[in-house]
Amino acid sequence: MRKLPAAAQEERRRQVIGLRESGLTYEAIAAQVGLTRTGVFDICRRFAEQGRAGLASGPRGPAPGTGRFLEAEQEAQVRALIRRHTPDELGLPFALWSRAAVRMLIERQCGVRLAVRTMSTYLARWGFTAETPLRRAYEPSPKAVLRWLRQEYPAIVAQARREKGTIFWGTRPACARMMGAAAASPPKAGRRWCAPATSARGWA
Asked: 65 lies in a domain?
């Protein structure tokens, strides 16, 4: 019965009611239409309580909103934090937003621990999608990339070590935000060096 289309299910229920009204027992109806006695009884009970409306098939699947672990207000709060701040600005050990970062934010803000794969559902529902970097730059320059990796990047690493800084890789907009946050942080906080991924067109 569950595998039948909605229209076929409704027709089967009408058959059950017709046979019942003709005087057949539940057992006889079940044998004739291919249902269990309990199934036939349930159909007759629904018809007695709701009339013809009880023979209609309801919507399949879970009701809208079921399966959500966060209240609407909690979701709105988390979305606002993601839009307005980077993870490190909120005291999270991440440079950029990821499923793990959002999961930690939700656990801290809402006291709810979600599975990492559940975060994909929430992020998609909120309109946040992963951005896949291009394999090659719009105007690739392999020689310039190689020169940067061999000459400029080692100098950045050396300076970061001397000043006990941390190197993050990201896009130019992300680096701009991070460097702006670093400039506004207390002097005792370690400096952050951000290597723009657009130089090599990829993530590290």
From this structure: no
